[in-house]
Known about the structure:
The structure holds 3 protein chains of 3 kinds. Chain A has helices at residues 6-33, 38-43, 55-63, 66-97, 101-113, 119-132, 138-162, 166-174, 179-208, 211-216, 225-235, 240-260, 262-278. Chain A is mostly helical. Chain A has a domain at 64-235: MetI-like fold (Orthogonal Bundle). In chain A, α4 (66-97) crosses α11 (225-235), α5 packs across α7 (138-162) and α7 crosses α13 (262-278). Chain A is globular. The two termini of chain C are 38 Å apart. Chain C has a 6-stranded mixed beta sheet, with helices on both faces. Chains in contact: A-B, A-C, B-C. At the A-B interface, α1, α2, α4, α5 and α6 of A face α1, α3, α4, α5 and α6 of B.
Amino acid sequence: MIQTDPRPALLARLLLGLMVLVSLAPLLLVVINAFKSHADIVENPLSLPHALVPTNFKAAWIGGNFSVGVVNSVLLTGTTVLVAVVFGALAAFPLARRRIVIWKLVTLYFLCSVTVPIQLFLFPMYFLYARLGLIGNVFATALIIAAINLPLSIMLLRTYILTIPTELDDAAFIDGASPWQTFRYVILPLMKPGCVTVAVIVSLNTWNEFLITSTFQQGDAGFTMTVGYHAMAGAMSPDLGIMMAGACIVIVPIIAFFLLLQRLFIDGMTAGTAGAVKG
Amino acid sequence: MSQIAERDRSYLFFALPALGLSVCVILVPALLTVVLAFTDWDGVSKPVWLGLENFRDLLNDITFWRAIFNNVKWTIIFLTVPMAIALVVASLLLTRRRSQSVYQSIFLLPYILSPIANASIWSNMIFDQRSGVLGYFSRHLLAVHDPLGHVSTALYTVASVDIWHFWGYLAVVFFAAMRQVPTEQLEAAYLEGAGGWQIFRHITLPNILPTIALMFVMVTIFSFLTFDYVFLMTGGGPAHSTELLSTLAYGFAFRSFEVGKATAVALFMSVFGLMAAYVYVWMSRESLQP
Amino acid sequence: MATLELQNIEKHFDSVQVIQPLDLSIVHGEFVVFVGPSGCGKSTLLRMIAGLESVSSGTISIDGKNVTSLPPVDRNVAMVFQNYALYPHMTVEENIDFGLRMAGMPKAQRREKVIEAARILKLEAYLARKPKALSGGQRQRVAIGRAIVKKPKLFLFDEPLSNLDAELRFQTRLEIAKLHQDLDATMIFVTHDQVEAMTLADRIVVLRDGRIEQVGTPMQIYDDPANVFVAGFIGSPKMNFLDANITAVSADRAWVKIPTLAPGDFECCTLRSRPAVGTEITVGVRSEHIDESSAVLGFPAQISILERLGSVSYAYVETSHGARLSIERRAQRDDQVGNIIHLQLMPERIFAFAKTGERL
Lengths: 279, 290, 360
């Protein structure tokens, strides 16, 4: 490894330390203030709490309707991931393996659909769903979010399939396997790590998604955790302690999920960019 | 010859679910949206054909130009500040062998959190004049005005929060790209007497240029679509100083029920996005080859 | 085992001609090797026979049946790939059994056949292992096992030894030769290595740029090359080529002048035709066909590089007129760099080639 003299190294540590502080400080603020009463916070937002009492959390849980929210968030995320991964894996297969022009056009379509602003299809979809009475239906909303995540899923999975040698397809072909059998018995088992990565990324995107979720999941029964928190934050702006407790409830699961699966997150985030550009 | 064509026919079924969903949810509504842009519609009653009137109204609407101007400002901010921070931090990370993944995870935390949570934390916990950190500072140290409430600072404040949220992602992407620079090149340069900065400038930077370019395009596309943080923190105010095309469209659709105007704005957003998309597709053309 | 007929087969990708129109017949039980430099089309031709690549025009017949538009499974062929192409997530048993499973054979029957194939290849101990737990040689045997279990009419090998180290390559070569004898099967083997071609083949097909340059037994190719390319491709070290012209021609022989070698003429009695006097030609002679001679009868040359391999040495010599030759030396232990030695050429081992490459 190339040696650097100590002074730049110290500077590097300082700068990095600063960025760590910047990244974490707001989050720390949330945590310490979630345990304080509103009055305490107003007096000094930077002080540590007297006691780690869960009163704010209880109020936040009820105020944000999180018991409903958790269920809806899980259902929404689960359904979206399922659709995005299954549909994506299936579509990625011919896109990775076949050569005729039509597949290039399909790839082009998916690449372009990444750039379409949600607003461009949001409004007709909303009014259509309203007519069909699907507003607030978690599964219906999941379809929309899945459609938005499909290009990402397909591109990532396609890149993944490209790493599987075509010789395996040849061998399967010689063994008499149909395209479906080749996919099911040879390609899909080898794609599992890619599917897991995509599932993780899509989960994150869906859990945090705001515009579509808030537009389509209106009505208390349809609230996801994020929408529920948003409603509560608007209504409960007087009490900062409860709001911060609510924020904690919303972000802790994600952070836990992330810390457990860091490697997958980072692989998924960089696979579509640094890796793909290298070719 | 026909043998191969027949096989491709069966492959079509593989793509059908994804294509079907995408066409139904995105393509068809998008086409409808394009049509709606030429009508007056409140979402309930029958749409009325207006021709180009919506577009004329928009072009005469000063808020519309404000929004475009703000979007351009936003794009410029995002193409410079977070990119620079990310590049610097990524290159610093290269020297911290053992703690790299810890740093990466910490820097990614703001990125993985929901925009609602982030916006709420910053708006209420930090910027709030009464109960937030800034309020505390104002009372005890230096009177600082509410950055979100002032026309001159609102946009930059929201942008800062989004930068806080976003730069970690760029840093991770750049870091991954930097690590892929072949060590032989770095060693060869080192043997020829190049110092740290020179190695970075002449070896690392050219090698990661494709990634930087790709991020450039991505940031451009997404900065024209940006919605969440602005909507949640200022809603487009104060006095339209943070109004972006996306919030403008949202307002037209769900506040004044002028869906035609909303879709017209959305069309403008797509034009910018499409231009950037053209560049994006051109750059990804290798990924189009099988 | 089966007969294979290729009639007027050609292949092009858009406007690029990859295989020129060619014909080939292979009989029951033959071991045929396709050999040639990279890009000559040998793998493409093999894949067309397998059914992995389509044919632009022409017909492929196996045992008299036209299989040109049939998928591989209906042609009853099996293929062993260069990189083994084993399914990494399946055990050895599942790998070998996959094709039978796709054909719908019941489990008990499949198991029987797999065990039989495993026995032939001494793989019984490894049936439950996954490919990553096997050595290169074992993996290759599993690939072969997957092929033989289907009892195909035709075995196709696509450079199966290229990924193995020298020792393993040698052993596996012997195993494949033995397999051919035991199974009495028709096999087509693709390689770029002319040693593998010479040692394994009943007949060799030499390919270049999508064309068949020559088809023949190894000794035919060695003793009677059809053109400069085949002559130079087969045999190691490469044949020596020198510019020359014909000074005299008679019924069954000719005399050639090789200016860079020595003044005076050399006799050549391998002619197939009667070229005209004065024709500019290329003369070819192998290093093992240049003998020691006396100062009176032979021509002088100086040793510039000497490679000793133990039983044989290769001397790279230069004549005073500018020729550079490689010579095989068997008993001359006192060779030294710088020595002047005297050499002669065997008339029945000199080949004459036209400037365009064909054998004269």
